Description:
The chain has helices at residues 20-23, 29-32, 46-58, 77-82; strands at residues 9-14, 34-40, 61-67, 71-76. The protein is an alpha+beta fold.
Amino acid sequence: MADLGDEQIDLLKLDIEGAEDEVLPTLDLRSLGVRVFSTQLHHTGSVKEAGLISDLRDQGYVAVACRPVVKLTFLSESELRHS
C-alpha cells in the first residue's frame, strides 16, 4: 500500500481454507482502511465462528450478508453512516 500510495482497501476478500482462526485475529482491518471485508469460514465450530465474528464487530464491522457455507461479508460502520 505504501509503495503505491494507497490509503485504504475498498474490498479485502479472504478465503484461506481453514486458517481463519489463526489469521483473522491478527488483522487490524481499521488501520488498513478496509471498507468491505469478505471471508469464508471453513470450520463448523459455532463457538469459534462466534468469536471471530465478535472480533470483527469489535473492530467496527457489521455483517451485511451471509451466504450458505458461511460466506460472510462485513461493512465498516463508517461506511454504513455514509450510505
